């Protein structure tokens, strides 16, 4: 029997505050998955699913103070940020309830039988999407609510009709426990089994989870090594399963000559705010910024240096991240031709505090293998300014980038080459911004939070209404009598779901 | 330099008729992929893509006699079937042209900026789907047209805007060459580069193709071992790619007591026709049929035996398949309690001819590991009748099945337990039929030709309008000025694409 304790740790002091759980054994994971699996039939009712999501939002709000207090102690992200994150989380749950109610995600397509159809007679075909089964959710370190137990993966999976087993992140086990209990209470309050969501702790639990035969899909937010290891396990199963992992992203930014000339100070200050936001612990942190050489770029860097220099020190999420950040900064700073106009470093005496910094390097260096590290994500409050001499150097750097969640272009409207640059950035990312900064991911129907590998291991999104698509599988029913069909597939469309009928799109609302 | 010749073989005689190509070397594959990759920008124009698909259909029809003659010689499937398959193929190409024209597949979602949005201000977000890049298509043995060079994977990939490199199936290299040249001519006739489709031959070419860094996705139809090996390579790449493989399917059928009582002869005769159609070489061939014990089931078997006994001998696609079929039948027939009311076997003296047969076994045997082979696909004209004593035995057998393309229920309308059986079959398959037979896959918007593993390695379909979704990736543009947006994302919607605008579905046509 595994009794390895799971400790809650105060991120500001590094001190253990309480033993809040034990790590799940392989047997525990098996029981968790079987319990969730048994809850599948109950989730088939869309009305109940929508009610569950709304009740979950209500319960989380009711326990908001408790959640924010625990999350702040465990992550040091601050009560303001975490209160906002809770609002985002409950908004997201309710948004998915609306998605469930509308039913467009079912992708209903009906073709009536046509004995005279060419090139062959056609049977009656009625297609819709069905839940995949139990979904394993791996919580993220940096969003203890919005990308963890009650986050987007969980909300979208429940919306799809899939029970969830969440593997808690070790940085916030107490927060995870509170959130899980709120969600389980919500389930029972609407007449669903609590086991539509089950929480497990421990690294081996995650490995067991992704390999369990009754787990049908997985959602993950975390590091490239951890995510790739789990992706590989998912793909190597006797029955492979979809693994929707968000692993890592550099989030490149290109500042044109025109933009630097017009808005150097604004861009420099904005960048300082973006890369230090949440102590640089966003997956959308801009990690590489291409800035022109010359006086306009110098002005930009001056504003950036001022902003970054003024940015307060703060705690990172855990000791491993702090060590990784400090080592990553030092490794990059030691490379030839890399300057540290504002040096990151240790701060304070206890906990995981660091102070932000940035690096500056001629863009030409970035095409050299020796400087490869500068094109890889360094988690925490650091960014890299690459000073370029012309479009060829920009192209040379972009040509060496992997996939990203975001890519940003700062250009002046009408500036020559802007269209081409935008087109050049599109294959590199899932979200392409014109101006502004990538930190801050709106929860909206059109959001795409997912990009080419390693940003994401699939073409899915983990934010926005279409995140539900990851947990569904189409099934077509052929020549099934209406009495045996679900109402969503009846001709009369009693539930008024959007559908494609004999080729034509219908939006009944 | 690789000069291994590729021979066209007459399937009726087994004789080599002509050396029609050479196997592609690793360098050849690299050149093929790079040529296709260079054709990507040209395919960005949706109007040209639709024109390409229609021109391809026209060219294939113009060369129809040549294609059918070559395909019949190489596969022995017969001119009638192949003429029908050509019609299906050209219909499919034109259907995808209509999908491209309509633009619903772009999944356009627009959220206007809302500075007052809760829980956070919202930027202008415009999401659509973009082509993934070069798609590798692995042609199927059993459909030299509809699932090969000009087949559904190619048509849907081109429709999505992805150039295609097809790995020809060794059973029909000459047919593949003719079809590829027709498609390349079609491309040039509409002003596109011929290299939107490139053909390669050879087993190693397939291995090289799925590992090429510029290949972004793959479509495959074939065997479980071959498909799984390629799936594993795709997943193990430094940058993994989606691998949409259709590998194998048992296609279970359940005949209830009521259906057997009412329609024993009709069901028996229908089954004989379905499992011998195309010499049993359909991925949707019913390979396991649960039939009640007792006199009604006996009548069903009698009709089946009559039909199967009358079914003509014919050539399989190649010598490997013939050997596998004969060995597979003999292995299963040798198991305890397995009867061979109609024994399959060799037929004729030349070529790959066999005669159809079927096996009969008590359903209780199928829960024993010794009889595992009876629950695995045996390609060719054979099916397994499992005689059951009650619902518990049906459930026990269904509980041992892997995923399938199809599952079929023969029940009487209103028969007790029919609803539950239909629900029981749904998790097992992508298409669930009430009555009829699974052979024959309608090309229709609602079709789902893809089911749980090993039927398919993804949740996609390889037939029907939604097959296009496999080759696309969503991208959202944030705060991009209209002058830099594609017309599909303009507020005024000049191209009249269906979309979701500020949450509301719009169908402008």
What do you see in this structure?
2 copies of one chain form a homodimer. The first copy, chain A, has 509 residues and is an alpha/beta fold. In chain A, 36% of the residues lie in helices and 21% in strands. Chain A is built from 13 helices and 22 strands. Chain A has helices at 26-38, 46-62, 64-75, 79-102, 152-160, 173-189, 203-211, 224-236, 257-276, 295-310, 319-333, 391-398, 418-425; strands at 5-9, 16-22, 108-111, 125-131, 134-138, 164-167, 197-200, 215-221, 243-246, 252-255, 288-292, 314-315, 339-342, 345-346, 353-355, 357-362, 382-388, 404-410, 429-434, 472-478, 499-501, 504-506. Chain A has a 7-stranded mixed beta sheet, with helices on both faces. In chain A, a hairpin with a 6-residue loop joins strand 14 and strand 15 (353-355). In chain A, helix 1 crosses helix 7 (203-211), helix 2 (46-62) packs antiparallel against helix 4 and helix 9 runs parallel beside helix 10. The mean pLDDT of chain A is 96. Chains A and B meet through helix 4, strand 3, strand 4, helix 8 and helix 13 of A and helix 4, strand 3, strand 4, helix 8 and helix 13 of B.
The first-to-last residue Cα distance of chain A is 55 Å
Mean pLDDT of chain A: 96
**Major beta sheet, strand line-up of chain A:** 13-16-17-11-10-18-19
Low-confidence stretches of chain A: none
Characterize the main sheet of chain A. 7 strands, mixed
Instruction: Count interface residues per chain for the largest interface.
Output: A-B, 84 and 83 residues
Quaternary assembly = homodimer
Class computed from helices, strands and strand pairing of chain A: alpha/beta
How much helix, percentage-wise, in residues of chain A? Answer: 25-40%
Number of helices of chain A: 13
- Give the CA-based shape of chain A: globular
How many strands of chain A?
Answer: 22
Radius of gyration of chain A: 24 Å
Strand content of chain A: 15-25%
